[in-house]
Amino acid sequence: MRAADTPAGLARLKTVPAHKFIRRVKAGRAYYMYVDPTLCKCVYLGDQDAMNNFRAMRATQRQQFFLQSPGAALPAGLAPENEVVQDIDTDAVVPDGDILDYQF
User: Fold this and answer.
1) Whole-angstrom Cα distance, residue 26 to residue 83?
2) DSSP 8-class letter at 84
3) Within 10 Å of residue 95's Cβ, how many Cβ atoms?
4) Which residues are within 8 A (CB) of 76 and not within 5 positions of it... i.e. 6 or more apart?
5) Which long-range contacts (CB under 8 A, 24 or more apart) does 5-14 make?
6) What whole-number distance in Å separates Cα of residue 85 and Cα of residue 21?
7) What is the number of alpha carbons within 13 Å of residue 33 lying toward its C-beta?
8) How many Cα atoms sit within 13 Å of 41 on the Cβ side?
9) For residues 1 and 104, what is the distance between their CA atoms, to the nearest angstrom?
10) Alpha helices (H) in 1-104, listed in sequence order
11) Which of 9, 57, 64, 86 gets the highest tally of CB atoms within 10 A of its CB?
């Protein structure tokens, strides 16, 4: 998880779809990112295992939310996120150290 704790980081998060898994490839290896500007103002980055762990964590959070707030509307950041989209700009170079870059 990388927090967008600067104005530049928050602006960078807005350049990709929120609340969806986005598949990217770096150095021939796939990684996934999930931008959450709602709950944590952060981006989660990782491999397939990390994405699966994130989904399990969010499922637990959804269960706890409904137990604590029966009938309440689910916040966007806790909605099920099953969709994985290919990065729209697959030729884009994400600079090392960028909030959206995954370091292998």
Assistant:
1) 20
2) E
3) 7
4) 18, 19, 38
5) 5/41, 9/99, 10/37, 10/41, 12/98, 12/99, 12/100, 13/37, 13/41, 13/42, 13/43, 13/99
6) 6
7) 24
8) 8
9) 14
10) 7-13, 48-68
11) 9
Nearest to 55 by CA among 84, 24, 94: 84
In one-letter notation, the amino acid at residue 86 is Q
Radius of gyration of the chain measured on its C-alpha atoms: 14
Give backbone dihedrals phi and psi of 93, rounded to 5 degrees, phi first: -100, 120
Say how far apart CA 80 and CA 86 lie, in whole Å: 18
Question: What pLDDT digit, counting tens, does each position of 48-98 carry?
Answer: 899 889 888 888 988 898 899 988 888 777 776 666 766 655 556 677 778
Task: pLDDT band for 18, please (50, 70, 90 cuts).
Answer: confident
What CA–CA distances, in Å, run from 94 to 4, 16, 53?
Answer: 16, 12, 24
